[in-house]
Structure formats: structure tokens, C-alpha cells
């Protein structure tokens, strides 16, 4: 049984990602687009990165953070037969600051299995 403090940390983390005021409407779709789920989470798109020398460079970075339990509760499969998060090549859409939504494809997935959150690094989607 997890400790009370850990349970509170999980609840707080999910609250901040999904409803604390920084959330964005996100649509997640399977690669074949046969399943689609709308949910809230943290979404970011910015143009600042760092090169191997630690210098700032102009490079697009797009990522979202979502609550895995929302996907599971809605029947959206998140794990493969080995029990690992498997969302690469799934399609993610969210609006930017101008309200324009754009489709992205999941390039990398970084689950936080302590808190139940999933961070997905995205690339531009090309049909």
C-alpha cells in the first residue's frame, strides 16, 4: 500500500496537469485514427533549445503531459504486452496561443510511473 504522502503527491500532480489553470484541451488519436480521446493536460510549444555546447539555439520543441488514468478509464490502450507505455506514432492535437490546432506525432514517451503521468515529445505530423 502506498503511503499517504505519495497518494497526495499523485493527486496534486494530476490536478496541476489537468485542471489547475495551465491545462489545455488535447486530442489523442491512434496512428490509424480509429480511436480518438479528448482530455486536458499540459501542452507546450516553444522555439528555444540548447546545442551540445549548452548554447541557446532556435529549434521547435513541442510536448504534452497527460494523466494515464484518464486514458485507461476511457478504454484508450496505453501499454503493450510487456506492460510498457507504447504511444509512439500516436497523433496529438492541441491549439496554440492563437487558437489554431495542429496535429503532431508522438516521437518519444517518458512515463512517470510514480505519479501516473506521461510526457510525450512531439514532431510535426505529415500525412
Structure description:
The protein has 127 residues and is α+β, with helices and mostly antiparallel strands. It has one domain (4-124): Thrombin, subunit H, CATH 2.40.10. Helices cover 17% and strands 46% of the residues. It is built from 2 helices and 6 strands. The chain has a 6-stranded antiparallel β-barrel. β4 and β5 (101-112) form a beta hairpin. The N and C termini lie far apart (46 Å).
List keywords for this structure.
127 residues; alpha+beta; Thrombin, subunit H; six-stranded antiparallel beta barrel; 2 helices; 17% helix
Low-confidence segments, given as residue ranges, are none
Total helical segments:
2
Helix content: 10-25%
CATH architecture: Beta Barrel
**Quick check: average pLDDT?**
93
Radius of gyration: 15 Å
State the shape: globular
Number of strands: 6
Can you tell me the CATH topology?
Thrombin, subunit H
Please give the domain count: 1
Which structural class fits the helix and strand makeup?
alpha+beta
Order of helices and strands: HEEEHEEE
Q: CATH class, anyone?
A: Mainly Beta
Please state roughly what percent of the residues sit in beta strands, choosing from under 5%, 5-15%, 15-25%, 25-35%, 35-45% or over 45%.
Answer: over 45%
Q: Calculate the terminal CA-CA distance, rounded to whole Å.
A: 46 Å
Major sheet: arrangement of strands: 1-2-3-6-5-4
Q: How would you characterize the largest beta sheet?
A: 6 strands, antiparallel, barrel
Amino acid at each position: 500500500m502506498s503511503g499517504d504522502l505519495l497518494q497526495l503527491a499523485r493527486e496534486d500532480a494530476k490536478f496541476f496537469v489537468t485542471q489547475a489553470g495551465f491545462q489545455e484541451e488535447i486530442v489523442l488519436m491512434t496512428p490509424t485514427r480509429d480511436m480518438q480521446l479528448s482530455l486536458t493536460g499540459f501542452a507546450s510549444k516553444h522555439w528555444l533549445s540548447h546545442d551540445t555546447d549548452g548554447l541557446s539555439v532556435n529549434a521547435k520543441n513541442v510536448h504534452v503531459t497527460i494523466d494515464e488514468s484518464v486514458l485507461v478509464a476511457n478504454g484508450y490502450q496505453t501499454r503493450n504486452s510487456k506492460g510498457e507505455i507504447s504511444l509512439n506514432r500516436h497523433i496529438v492535437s492541441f491549439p496554440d496561443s492563437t487558437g489554431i490546432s495542429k496535429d503532431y506525432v508522438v516521437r518519444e514517451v517518458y512515463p512517470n510511473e510514480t505519479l501516473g503521468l506521461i510526457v510525450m515529445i512531439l514532431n510535426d505530423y505529415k500525412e
